[in-house]
Amino acid sequence: MRLKPLLLSALFAAFAAAPALAQQVGEVGVDWLGNDIIVEAIADPKVEGVTCHVSYFERGMIDRLQKGNWFEDPSDSSIACQQTGPIVIGDIDLSKGGEEVFRQGISLIWKKQVVNRIYDPTTDTLIYLSHSRQVQDGSAKMSISTVPLYNQHPTWTKGKPQ
Length: 162
Description:
Blueprint: H1 3-16, E1 22-29, E2 36-43, E3 47-58, H2 61-67, E4 77-89, E5 99-105, E6 112-120, E7 125-133, E8 142-148, E9 155-156
Parallel strand pairs: 4-9
Antiparallel strand pairs: 1-2, 2-3, 3-4, 5-6, 6-7, 7-8
């Protein structure tokens, strides 16, 4: 009978560690083939008061049929992050690689659109990097946005790093 509480704990831990969910806030048609630019809002799950808006290209069915490559969208994306409320910083990864804040598939299996957060202690700035991740043939297409914490008086739940 102890299996059920252990299973529930494991499920809770998996969801607590999951990246943020995106909310689509815009969709702009760019041609008659059904191709669109999608705009999504992403709230950082460990930094309250910061919202990132990510845009990316979503291929329509006619474009997929014309060009072959049916199962993936381009790696292009753009990101802009801003303070949208009082900033409360939780237990974030302070390493140079930062941590993944958001991830979604842009191909059937292997290609992902990812947003990473990196903290720069020298300038007291949160850096958000949008890029694609692939098993092979990685893309150099990326976009970056910063949220300076200078003079913002954020609350650090684990204390500000020194």
